[in-house]
Design a protein that fits this description.
The chain is mainly alpha-helical. It is built from 19 helices and no strands. The protein is globular and about 60 Å long.
Length: about 475
Amino acid sequence: MTVDQPKVFGAPTRALSIGLLLTVTMIAFEALGVATAMPVTAADLDGLSLYGWAFSATTLASLLGIAVAGGQTDRHGPARPFAVGLVLFAAGLLGAGLAGSMPVLVAFRFLQGLGAGVLPPVVYASIGRSFDEGGRARMFALLSSAWVLPGIVGPAVSGAVAEHLHWRWIFLGLLPLVPVTAVLALPALHRLGAPAVRAPETVVSRRRAPRAMQLALGAGVFTTGLGLHSVKGLPLVAVALLLAVPALLSLLPPGSLHAAPGLPAAVASRGLQTFAFFGAQAFLPLALTSVRGLSPLEAGLVLTAATLTWTMGAWVQERRGARWGRHVLVVNGLALVTVGIAGLALVLVPSIPVLAGAAAWTLGGLGMGMSYSGLSLLILAKAEPGNEGVATSSMQLSDVLGVATGTGVGGAAVAAGEAFGWARSSGIAVAFAAAVASAALAVTAARRIDRSAGRTWWPAGNVTAEAGGASTRSV
Protein backbone atom coordinates (compact mmCIF):
# COMPACT_ATOMS: atom_id res chain seq x y z
CA MET A 1 0.00 0.00 0.00
CA THR A 2 1.14 3.56 -0.53
CA VAL A 3 0.96 6.25 2.08
CA ASP A 4 0.28 9.84 1.03
CA GLN A 5 2.90 12.28 2.25
CA PRO A 6 1.26 14.86 4.55
CA LYS A 7 1.91 18.45 3.52
CA VAL A 8 2.59 20.03 6.91
CA PHE A 9 4.22 23.00 5.18
CA GLY A 10 1.35 23.60 2.79
CA ALA A 11 -0.13 27.08 2.62
CA PRO A 12 -2.89 26.55 5.23
CA THR A 13 -0.55 25.27 7.96
CA ARG A 14 2.90 26.57 6.98
CA ALA A 15 3.10 29.40 9.53
CA LEU A 16 1.67 27.19 12.28
CA SER A 17 4.17 24.39 11.58
CA ILE A 18 7.17 26.73 11.51
CA GLY A 19 5.97 28.54 14.64
CA LEU A 20 5.51 25.33 16.62
CA LEU A 21 8.88 23.98 15.50
CA LEU A 22 10.57 27.25 16.43
CA THR A 23 8.92 27.05 19.86
CA VAL A 24 10.43 23.62 20.51
CA THR A 25 13.84 24.68 19.16
CA MET A 26 13.82 27.71 21.44
CA ILE A 27 12.99 25.58 24.49
CA ALA A 28 15.69 23.07 23.52
CA PHE A 29 18.40 25.72 23.17
CA GLU A 30 17.42 27.20 26.52
CA ALA A 31 17.42 23.86 28.36
CA LEU A 32 20.75 22.67 26.96
CA GLY A 33 22.44 26.06 27.06
CA VAL A 34 21.52 26.87 30.65
CA ALA A 35 22.63 23.42 31.84
CA THR A 36 26.07 24.04 30.34
CA ALA A 37 26.49 27.55 31.73
CA MET A 38 24.94 27.12 35.18
CA PRO A 39 28.25 26.31 36.95
CA VAL A 40 29.65 29.66 35.74
CA THR A 41 26.41 31.43 36.66
CA ALA A 42 26.29 30.01 40.18
CA ALA A 43 29.95 30.85 40.81
CA ASP A 44 29.51 34.44 39.56
CA LEU A 45 26.45 34.99 41.78
CA ASP A 46 28.06 33.20 44.75
CA GLY A 47 25.13 30.82 44.86
CA LEU A 48 26.45 27.28 44.63
CA SER A 49 24.22 26.30 47.57
CA LEU A 50 21.19 26.98 45.36
CA TYR A 51 22.65 25.31 42.26
CA GLY A 52 20.18 22.41 42.32
CA TRP A 53 17.21 24.70 42.84
CA ALA A 54 18.07 26.59 39.65
CA PHE A 55 16.88 23.44 37.87
CA SER A 56 14.33 22.10 40.38
CA ALA A 57 12.41 25.40 40.42
CA THR A 58 11.98 25.19 36.65
CA THR A 59 10.82 21.57 36.78
CA LEU A 60 8.33 22.13 39.60
CA ALA A 61 6.92 25.23 37.91
CA SER A 62 6.51 23.33 34.66
CA LEU A 63 4.18 20.89 36.45
CA LEU A 64 1.85 23.80 37.23
CA GLY A 65 2.00 25.11 33.67
CA ILE A 66 1.39 21.70 32.13
CA ALA A 67 -1.61 20.89 34.33
CA VAL A 68 -3.36 24.22 33.76
CA ALA A 69 -2.58 24.62 30.04
CA GLY A 70 -4.42 21.52 28.88
CA GLY A 71 -7.79 22.52 30.31
CA GLN A 72 -7.42 26.10 29.14
CA THR A 73 -6.63 24.93 25.61
CA ASP A 74 -9.74 22.75 25.51
CA ARG A 75 -11.91 25.51 26.95
CA HIS A 76 -10.69 28.62 25.13
CA GLY A 77 -8.58 27.36 22.24
CA PRO A 78 -4.78 27.30 22.00
CA ALA A 79 -4.02 30.98 21.28
CA ARG A 80 -4.61 32.37 24.78
CA PRO A 81 -2.53 29.85 26.77
CA PHE A 82 0.19 29.93 24.11
CA ALA A 83 0.47 33.73 24.40
CA VAL A 84 0.53 33.52 28.22
CA GLY A 85 3.22 30.84 28.04
CA LEU A 86 5.39 32.95 25.76
CA VAL A 87 5.04 36.02 28.00
CA LEU A 88 5.97 34.03 31.12
CA PHE A 89 8.89 32.37 29.35
CA ALA A 90 10.19 35.71 28.06
CA ALA A 91 9.78 37.38 31.47
CA GLY A 92 11.72 34.52 33.04
CA LEU A 93 14.52 34.85 30.48
CA LEU A 94 14.74 38.61 31.01
CA GLY A 95 14.70 38.40 34.80
CA ALA A 96 17.24 35.57 34.93
CA GLY A 97 19.52 37.41 32.51
CA LEU A 98 19.47 40.53 34.70
CA ALA A 99 19.51 38.75 38.08
CA GLY A 100 21.93 40.17 40.62
CA SER A 101 21.75 37.25 43.06
CA MET A 102 21.12 33.55 43.00
CA PRO A 103 17.75 33.71 44.85
CA VAL A 104 16.51 36.19 42.23
CA LEU A 105 17.75 33.90 39.46
CA VAL A 106 15.93 30.92 41.00
CA ALA A 107 12.71 32.98 41.24
CA PHE A 108 12.84 33.92 37.57
CA ARG A 109 13.79 30.35 36.64
CA PHE A 110 10.50 29.36 38.31
CA LEU A 111 8.65 31.89 36.15
CA GLN A 112 10.49 30.63 33.09
CA GLY A 113 9.55 27.03 33.93
CA LEU A 114 5.92 28.04 34.31
CA GLY A 115 5.92 29.39 30.76
CA ALA A 116 7.89 26.45 29.41
CA GLY A 117 5.35 24.10 31.00
CA VAL A 118 2.40 25.85 29.36
CA LEU A 119 3.79 25.62 25.82
CA PRO A 120 4.18 21.84 25.12
CA PRO A 121 0.55 20.82 25.82
CA VAL A 122 -0.61 23.65 23.56
CA VAL A 123 1.79 22.51 20.83
CA TYR A 124 0.63 18.88 21.05
CA ALA A 125 -3.07 19.73 21.20
CA SER A 126 -2.72 22.10 18.25
CA ILE A 127 -1.04 19.39 16.20
CA GLY A 128 -3.87 17.03 17.12
CA ARG A 129 -6.48 19.49 15.92
CA SER A 130 -4.66 20.77 12.82
CA PHE A 131 -3.42 17.60 11.09
CA ASP A 132 -4.65 14.17 10.17
CA GLU A 133 -2.87 11.07 11.45
CA GLY A 134 -0.13 11.22 8.82
CA GLY A 135 0.45 14.92 9.38
CA ARG A 136 0.77 14.40 13.11
CA ALA A 137 3.39 11.71 12.54
CA ARG A 138 5.35 14.06 10.29
CA MET A 139 5.16 16.89 12.83
CA PHE A 140 6.33 14.71 15.72
CA ALA A 141 9.27 13.51 13.63
CA LEU A 142 10.12 17.15 12.88
CA LEU A 143 9.81 18.05 16.56
CA SER A 144 12.35 15.32 17.38
CA SER A 145 14.62 16.71 14.67
CA ALA A 146 14.28 20.18 16.23
CA TRP A 147 16.32 18.90 19.21
CA VAL A 148 19.23 17.72 17.05
CA LEU A 149 20.88 21.08 16.26
CA PRO A 150 20.52 22.36 19.85
CA GLY A 151 21.80 19.02 21.11
CA ILE A 152 24.91 19.17 18.94
CA VAL A 153 25.85 22.84 19.00
CA GLY A 154 23.92 24.18 22.00
CA PRO A 155 26.32 23.15 24.79
CA ALA A 156 29.38 24.26 22.81
CA VAL A 157 27.87 27.64 21.88
CA SER A 158 26.66 28.17 25.44
CA GLY A 159 30.09 27.37 26.85
CA ALA A 160 31.76 29.77 24.43
CA VAL A 161 29.28 32.55 25.24
CA ALA A 162 29.73 32.06 28.99
CA GLU A 163 33.51 32.06 28.65
CA HIS A 164 34.09 34.87 26.14
CA LEU A 165 31.02 37.11 26.55
CA HIS A 166 28.89 36.60 29.66
CA TRP A 167 26.53 33.96 30.95
CA ARG A 168 23.72 36.56 30.95
CA TRP A 169 23.61 36.44 27.15
CA ILE A 170 22.56 32.80 27.26
CA PHE A 171 19.24 34.02 28.68
CA LEU A 172 19.00 37.38 26.96
CA GLY A 173 20.14 36.10 23.56
CA LEU A 174 17.02 33.93 23.23
CA LEU A 175 14.60 36.82 23.77
CA PRO A 176 14.40 37.86 20.07
CA LEU A 177 13.05 34.41 19.20
CA VAL A 178 9.95 34.96 21.34
CA PRO A 179 8.26 37.67 19.21
CA VAL A 180 9.21 35.81 16.02
CA THR A 181 7.51 32.69 17.37
CA ALA A 182 4.46 34.72 18.37
CA VAL A 183 4.10 36.36 14.95
CA LEU A 184 4.28 33.00 13.18
CA ALA A 185 2.13 30.85 15.45
CA LEU A 186 -0.44 33.06 17.17
CA PRO A 187 -2.57 34.00 14.13
CA ALA A 188 -2.88 30.34 13.13
CA LEU A 189 -3.65 29.30 16.70
CA HIS A 190 -6.26 32.05 16.96
CA ARG A 191 -7.96 30.72 13.82
CA LEU A 192 -8.22 27.28 15.41
CA GLY A 193 -10.38 28.75 18.16
CA ALA A 194 -12.07 26.61 20.77
CA PRO A 195 -12.86 22.98 19.85
CA ALA A 196 -16.14 22.48 18.01
CA VAL A 197 -16.91 19.65 20.44
CA ARG A 198 -16.15 20.78 23.96
CA ALA A 199 -15.72 18.32 26.79
CA PRO A 200 -18.05 19.05 29.74
CA GLU A 201 -16.43 20.92 32.62
CA THR A 202 -16.38 18.79 35.76
CA VAL A 203 -15.43 19.38 39.36
CA VAL A 204 -12.16 17.57 38.65
CA SER A 205 -11.34 19.83 35.69
CA ARG A 206 -12.06 22.95 37.76
CA ARG A 207 -9.63 21.73 40.43
CA ARG A 208 -6.69 21.11 38.11
CA ALA A 209 -4.82 24.25 39.22
CA PRO A 210 -4.90 23.56 43.00
CA ARG A 211 -4.20 19.87 42.38
CA ALA A 212 -1.23 20.86 40.24
CA MET A 213 0.07 23.07 43.07
CA GLN A 214 -0.30 20.14 45.46
CA LEU A 215 1.54 17.87 43.02
CA ALA A 216 4.38 20.38 42.57
CA LEU A 217 4.69 20.74 46.35
CA GLY A 218 4.81 16.98 46.76
CA ALA A 219 7.41 16.67 44.02
CA GLY A 220 9.51 19.37 45.68
CA VAL A 221 9.38 17.62 49.05
CA PHE A 222 10.22 14.31 47.33
CA THR A 223 13.27 15.87 45.66
CA THR A 224 14.37 17.40 48.97
CA GLY A 225 14.00 14.07 50.77
CA LEU A 226 16.05 12.20 48.22
CA GLY A 227 18.59 15.00 48.20
CA LEU A 228 19.42 14.38 51.88
CA HIS A 229 21.02 11.07 50.79
CA SER A 230 20.29 9.39 54.12
CA VAL A 231 17.52 7.72 56.10
CA LYS A 232 16.70 11.17 57.49
CA GLY A 233 15.05 11.90 54.17
CA LEU A 234 12.58 8.99 54.38
CA PRO A 235 9.94 10.93 56.39
CA LEU A 236 10.03 13.66 53.76
CA VAL A 237 9.62 11.08 51.01
CA ALA A 238 6.60 9.64 52.85
CA VAL A 239 5.02 13.09 53.22
CA ALA A 240 5.72 13.77 49.57
CA LEU A 241 3.89 10.63 48.50
CA LEU A 242 0.88 11.55 50.67
CA LEU A 243 0.75 14.92 48.93
CA ALA A 244 1.59 13.91 45.39
CA VAL A 245 -0.26 10.62 44.80
CA PRO A 246 -3.84 11.93 45.39
CA ALA A 247 -3.10 14.98 43.26
CA LEU A 248 -1.61 12.84 40.52
CA LEU A 249 -4.62 10.52 40.52
CA SER A 250 -6.92 13.48 39.89
CA LEU A 251 -4.76 14.89 37.07
CA LEU A 252 -4.15 11.69 35.08
CA PRO A 253 -6.80 9.60 33.30
CA PRO A 254 -8.49 7.14 35.71
CA GLY A 255 -6.58 3.87 35.79
CA SER A 256 -3.21 5.34 34.79
CA LEU A 257 -1.36 4.04 37.83
CA HIS A 258 -2.25 0.44 36.96
CA ALA A 259 -2.09 0.97 33.18
CA ALA A 260 -5.74 0.31 32.40
CA PRO A 261 -6.30 -0.40 28.68
CA GLY A 262 -6.47 2.57 26.31
CA LEU A 263 -5.42 6.12 27.18
CA PRO A 264 -4.38 5.31 30.79
CA ALA A 265 -1.92 2.65 29.60
CA ALA A 266 -0.44 5.07 27.07
CA VAL A 267 0.06 7.77 29.71
CA ALA A 268 1.59 5.23 32.12
CA SER A 269 3.94 3.99 29.41
CA ARG A 270 5.19 7.51 28.83
CA GLY A 271 6.11 8.05 32.47
CA LEU A 272 7.83 4.67 32.77
CA GLN A 273 9.66 5.35 29.52
CA THR A 274 11.11 8.69 30.63
CA PHE A 275 11.97 7.29 34.09
CA ALA A 276 13.99 4.58 32.36
CA PHE A 277 15.78 6.51 29.64
CA PHE A 278 16.57 9.74 31.46
CA GLY A 279 17.26 7.92 34.73
CA ALA A 280 19.99 6.00 32.89
CA GLN A 281 21.20 8.96 30.84
CA ALA A 282 21.77 11.09 33.94
CA PHE A 283 24.43 8.67 35.22
CA LEU A 284 25.97 7.61 31.92
CA PRO A 285 28.54 10.47 31.89
CA LEU A 286 29.47 9.62 35.49
CA ALA A 287 29.99 5.99 34.54
CA LEU A 288 32.07 6.85 31.49
CA THR A 289 34.29 9.42 33.21
CA SER A 290 34.73 8.14 36.77
CA VAL A 291 34.56 4.39 36.11
CA ARG A 292 36.06 4.04 32.63
CA GLY A 293 38.26 7.16 32.58
CA LEU A 294 36.86 8.81 29.44
CA SER A 295 37.07 12.56 28.95
CA PRO A 296 33.92 14.71 29.17
CA LEU A 297 34.15 15.24 25.41
CA GLU A 298 34.19 11.49 24.74
CA ALA A 299 31.26 10.97 27.10
CA GLY A 300 29.38 13.74 25.31
CA LEU A 301 29.86 12.00 21.98
CA VAL A 302 28.08 8.92 23.34
CA LEU A 303 25.13 11.09 24.40
CA THR A 304 25.06 12.82 21.03
CA ALA A 305 24.99 9.49 19.18
CA ALA A 306 21.82 8.50 21.05
CA THR A 307 20.28 11.90 20.20
CA LEU A 308 20.85 11.20 16.51
CA THR A 309 19.40 7.68 16.64
CA TRP A 310 16.40 9.05 18.60
CA THR A 311 15.68 11.28 15.61
CA MET A 312 16.12 8.31 13.26
CA GLY A 313 13.59 6.36 15.30
CA ALA A 314 11.06 9.18 15.11
CA TRP A 315 11.34 9.14 11.32
CA VAL A 316 10.90 5.33 11.31
CA GLN A 317 7.63 5.92 13.18
CA GLU A 318 6.64 8.59 10.65
CA ARG A 319 7.53 6.52 7.57
CA ARG A 320 6.45 3.04 8.67
CA GLY A 321 3.92 3.60 11.44
CA ALA A 322 0.86 3.67 9.18
CA ARG A 323 2.01 0.48 7.46
CA TRP A 324 3.26 -1.57 10.39
CA GLY A 325 1.02 -0.05 13.07
CA ARG A 326 1.83 2.71 15.55
CA HIS A 327 1.26 0.34 18.45
CA VAL A 328 3.66 -2.24 16.99
CA LEU A 329 6.46 0.30 16.74
CA VAL A 330 5.79 1.67 20.23
CA VAL A 331 6.01 -1.76 21.88
CA ASN A 332 9.09 -2.75 19.95
CA GLY A 333 10.70 0.64 20.49
CA LEU A 334 10.27 0.26 24.23
CA ALA A 335 11.75 -3.23 23.98
CA LEU A 336 14.80 -1.69 22.29
CA VAL A 337 15.04 0.86 25.12
CA THR A 338 15.04 -2.01 27.63
CA VAL A 339 17.77 -3.87 25.75
CA GLY A 340 19.74 -0.66 25.23
CA ILE A 341 19.82 0.25 28.93
CA ALA A 342 20.69 -3.33 29.92
CA GLY A 343 23.53 -3.29 27.40
CA LEU A 344 24.62 0.12 28.64
CA ALA A 345 25.51 -1.48 31.96
CA LEU A 346 28.39 -3.17 30.13
CA VAL A 347 30.36 0.09 30.46
CA LEU A 348 30.71 -0.76 34.16
CA VAL A 349 32.68 -3.94 33.35
CA PRO A 350 36.36 -3.04 32.84
CA SER A 351 37.07 -6.08 30.67
CA ILE A 352 34.41 -5.14 28.10
CA PRO A 353 35.18 -2.38 25.55
CA VAL A 354 33.32 0.87 26.14
CA LEU A 355 32.10 0.77 22.55
CA ALA A 356 29.88 -2.22 23.39
CA GLY A 357 27.92 -0.21 25.96
CA ALA A 358 27.92 2.85 23.71
CA ALA A 359 26.48 0.80 20.85
CA ALA A 360 23.73 -0.48 23.13
CA TRP A 361 22.90 3.08 24.18
CA THR A 362 22.52 4.20 20.56
CA LEU A 363 20.10 1.28 20.12
CA GLY A 364 18.16 2.60 23.10
CA GLY A 365 18.04 6.02 21.44
CA LEU A 366 16.55 4.44 18.33
CA GLY A 367 13.88 2.78 20.46
CA MET A 368 13.09 6.09 22.19
CA GLY A 369 12.49 7.76 18.84
CA MET A 370 10.14 4.99 17.72
CA SER A 371 8.18 4.88 20.97
CA TYR A 372 8.22 8.48 22.22
CA SER A 373 6.58 10.02 19.16
CA GLY A 374 4.44 6.92 18.73
CA LEU A 375 2.99 7.31 22.22
CA SER A 376 2.20 10.95 21.45
CA LEU A 377 0.28 9.84 18.37
CA LEU A 378 -1.61 7.11 20.24
CA ILE A 379 -2.54 9.47 23.07
CA LEU A 380 -3.96 12.00 20.61
CA ALA A 381 -5.81 9.19 18.82
CA LYS A 382 -7.29 7.93 22.10
CA ALA A 383 -8.30 11.41 23.33
CA GLU A 384 -11.97 12.32 23.17
CA PRO A 385 -12.82 15.14 20.71
CA GLY A 386 -12.50 18.47 22.50
CA ASN A 387 -10.34 16.89 25.21
CA GLU A 388 -6.99 16.90 23.38
CA GLY A 389 -5.52 19.53 25.70
CA VAL A 390 -6.22 17.59 28.90
CA ALA A 391 -4.97 14.35 27.30
CA THR A 392 -1.68 15.88 26.18
CA SER A 393 -1.37 17.67 29.52
CA SER A 394 -1.62 14.27 31.26
CA MET A 395 1.05 12.94 28.91
CA GLN A 396 3.38 15.84 29.71
CA LEU A 397 2.81 15.46 33.46
CA SER A 398 3.71 11.78 33.24
CA ASP A 399 6.70 12.73 31.12
CA VAL A 400 8.13 15.29 33.56
CA LEU A 401 7.47 13.16 36.64
CA GLY A 402 9.17 10.22 34.98
CA VAL A 403 12.31 12.26 34.39
CA ALA A 404 12.27 13.70 37.92
CA THR A 405 11.72 10.40 39.72
CA GLY A 406 14.11 8.47 37.46
CA THR A 407 16.98 10.84 38.13
CA GLY A 408 16.00 11.17 41.81
CA VAL A 409 15.91 7.43 42.45
CA GLY A 410 19.17 6.94 40.56
CA GLY A 411 20.81 9.74 42.52
CA ALA A 412 19.67 8.21 45.80
CA ALA A 413 21.14 4.85 44.72
CA VAL A 414 24.51 6.38 43.85
CA ALA A 415 24.58 8.41 47.07
CA ALA A 416 23.69 5.34 49.15
CA GLY A 417 26.51 3.42 47.51
CA GLU A 418 28.95 6.18 48.42
CA ALA A 419 27.67 6.24 52.01
CA PHE A 420 28.07 2.47 52.43
CA GLY A 421 31.55 2.51 50.92
CA TRP A 422 30.65 0.61 47.74
CA ALA A 423 32.62 1.01 44.57
CA ARG A 424 31.12 3.83 42.52
CA SER A 425 30.25 1.36 39.78
CA SER A 426 27.98 -0.50 42.22
CA GLY A 427 25.79 2.53 42.94
CA ILE A 428 25.55 3.33 39.25
CA ALA A 429 24.66 -0.31 38.57
CA VAL A 430 21.69 0.01 40.93
CA ALA A 431 20.57 3.16 39.07
CA PHE A 432 20.83 1.31 35.75
CA ALA A 433 18.92 -1.67 37.18
CA ALA A 434 16.05 0.61 38.26
CA ALA A 435 15.99 2.06 34.74
CA VAL A 436 15.89 -1.39 33.14
CA ALA A 437 13.01 -2.42 35.41
CA SER A 438 11.05 0.69 34.50
CA ALA A 439 11.64 0.13 30.78
CA ALA A 440 10.41 -3.46 31.08
CA LEU A 441 7.27 -2.23 32.85
CA ALA A 442 6.79 0.29 30.05
CA VAL A 443 6.74 -2.57 27.53
CA THR A 444 4.08 -4.36 29.58
CA ALA A 445 1.99 -1.21 29.93
CA ALA A 446 2.27 -0.39 26.23
CA ARG A 447 0.92 -3.79 25.23
CA ARG A 448 -2.28 -2.83 27.11
CA ILE A 449 -2.88 0.34 25.10
CA ASP A 450 -4.95 -1.54 22.55
CA ARG A 451 -5.85 -5.11 23.48
CA SER A 452 -7.39 -5.66 20.06
CA ALA A 453 -4.00 -5.12 18.46
CA GLY A 454 -3.14 -8.81 18.41
CA ARG A 455 0.53 -9.33 17.59
CA THR A 456 2.67 -6.45 18.83
CA TRP A 457 6.14 -7.66 17.90
CA TRP A 458 7.98 -7.10 14.64
CA PRO A 459 5.68 -7.67 11.63
CA ALA A 460 6.75 -10.35 9.16
CA GLY A 461 5.49 -8.24 6.28
CA ASN A 462 3.32 -5.22 5.68
CA VAL A 463 0.79 -4.75 8.44
CA THR A 464 -1.92 -2.15 8.18
CA ALA A 465 -2.49 0.41 10.87
CA GLU A 466 -5.70 -1.36 11.82
CA ALA A 467 -3.96 -4.71 12.26
CA GLY A 468 -1.23 -2.99 14.24
CA GLY A 469 -3.88 -1.67 16.58
CA ALA A 470 -3.23 2.04 16.19
CA SER A 471 -6.51 3.84 16.61
CA THR A 472 -6.49 6.72 14.13
CA ARG A 473 -8.86 9.65 13.89
CA SER A 474 -8.79 12.44 11.35
CA VAL A 475 -9.09 15.93 12.71
